Structures are given as C-alpha cells and as structure tokens.
Amino acid sequence: MKVITKVIALFLLVSIFSSCSNNDDDTIIKTNTIVDVAVNNNLSSLVAAVTKAELATTLSGPGPFTVLAPTNEAFSSFLEEKGFNSLDEVPKELLTQILLNHVIDGSLKSTDLSTGYANTKATSDASESPMSIYINTDGGVTFNGTSQVSIPNVSADNGTVHVVDKVVDLPTIVTFAAADSNFSILVEALTREASYTYVETLSTPNDTEPAPFTVFAPVNSAFVSLLNELDLTALSEVPTATLTSTLNTHVVAGANVLASSLSDNMSISTLGGGLTVNLSGGQATLTDSGSRVSKIIATDVQANNGVIHAIDKVVLE
Predict the structure, then answer these.
(1) Residue 26: which pLDDT band, with cuts at 50, 70 and 90?
(2) What is the pTM of this model?
(3) What Cα–Cα distance (Å) separates residue 278 from each residue in 56, 265, 290?
C-alpha cells in the first residue's frame, strides 16, 4: 500500500507540474499594436479592410508608423462614392494601396505635424515611387484637403493613430492643386473658362491617355508677378487664348518626370511650347522660348497619375 500511495503522489506531482508548465506556455502577452487600437476603438471597417488586404502583420510590426484611421462612417461614404456595395467588391490591389496611403513612417503626434508634404507607404502607379500626402495644420489637421482628424494621438506600441473622418483616396494632380493654397490662383486659372477641361484631363487615371502628367505649377506669387508684368489687375483680364497657351506650357503629357530624371540642357516638350532645363549653380531652372527663367522651388509632389514641381515664375509659349 505504501508503494502504491507513493506512486499516486508522484503522479499527482508530475501532473501538477505539467499543468503549470502548459499554463506558462499558453500565457497571453497583451499587446497594443496599431491593429489592436483599431479593434478596440470600434473601427471595424478598417479592421475588415486591413484583413482583406492582408496588412495586419505589417501594421502589427515594429514600425513605428503613423496611421490615419478612417471611421466606419468614412468607409461607408467612400464605398458609396466609388459605387461599391461592400468592401468585398473593392479589388484587393486597389484596397491595399488605399490603406497604405493612410500610413506614414515614424510615430508622429499632432504636434509633430506641420503644413507641407510627406510620403505615405502607398506606391504611385505613375512612377512606382512613394505617394505624396499634403498635410494642413491650419485650424486642425487635414490630409489632402478632405480628410480631417477627429481623434488625434491614440498611442500604440508601434506608433500613433489619428482617427479621420474621411478615407484618403489615391490623389491625382488635381487633388494636390486643390488642397495646397499655394496653388489657389493656378486652380482659378484652370477653372476660369467653362469650356476648359483641365480639371477633368488632369484627373485622368494613370493607365488612360493622356496620363501620366508632369506639371510645373506656378505658385501664387508667380501669377501675381505675371499680372504686374502684363499691367493687369486680375486673372479675369487675361485673354482666353493667352491663358490657354500659358497653362499648356506648364503641362507635360505621357510622362512622369521626377527631379532625379532632369539633366542639364534637357529639352522638355509641353502641351504648349518647349522648355529647357538648367541645373548649373545648384539651382534647377526652366527657360522658355522667350528666355524667361523660372526656378524650380519644390519637386516630386507625387500623385497617382503624375507629378508636380512648383516653380516661382510663369513660363510662356
């Protein structure tokens, strides 16, 4: 009997030890990744989209990331605008790029953001390079002129989440022109005539002619200088033919020309006249047929259907 009792006691001890060991193996380590934040903050549409696009592992990685997290209502509005009945109808490749367009490298709190451009993790169809996103911090934080932060600075183990009220769609050339107030006079020029099709044309998807585009976009001060030069007081006084030819001279169709592709004395054919690139002296410039010289003051604002380079002077045909 003593032997049997010892055997039973040994068996119970082994069982208890084994049970404790298994419990240790099954211990759940609590995490608070960006995906966890989405799950725990009633962002079920975002979770479903991330799952479909197979990005959960990426967004649970070390990062750090800044993620713009659309609300369920934002996703519903987006699907309706695009003619989809549900997330299931959105092509996976398209959904993946749209979601990546909400991800910026680094953990950026709202106080770290400033007005200007950043890159997202999305890839432009026009260049296979990172997509740009325009951040505006005047009176809150807005992305690409449409998506506003409603809940900022939700901390995660691998970054920061900002809940936004609208899905940030893949941008076109028009998206950035409309969002960036530095181009407000350019937008006025593009839309002045009812017969103009510039907005429609510059919204053309990358895989459709005449996209992609390279736009040398004059900032507001460039147009003000031109009006002074022409002794005019308003854009409305510029003759239609003159304005049309001028706008055409700022647009290249069928090519996404990045700054790295520009070379000294390079000739560029626009929809209007020809331009010549000069890279001497460390300052990239454009010279038109009338020897007007315009400095390129910002480069590579990358949309999904082309690229924008800002210039400080209007060039003419």
Answers:
(1) low
(2) 0.89
(3) 46, 5, 15
Q: Say whether pLDDT at 17 is over 50.
A: no
Collapse the DSSP code of 124 into the 3-class scheme (helix H, G, I; strand E, B; otherwise coil) and give the result.
Answer: coil
C-alpha distance from residue 58 to each of 51, 94, 121, 206 (Å): 11, 17, 11, 27
Tokens standing for residue 80: 């309706």
Distance between CA atoms of 195 and 198, rounded to whole angstroms?
9
CA distance 185 to 14: 81
Q: If we measure between CA atoms, which residue out of 272, 275, 270, 295 comes closest to residue 285?
A: 295
With contact defined as beta carbons under 8 Å apart, do 285 and 295 qualify? yes
Q: Give burial (CB, 10 Å; 0-12/13-18/19+) of 89.
A: exposed
Work out the pLDDT band at 134, boundaries 50, 70, 90: very high
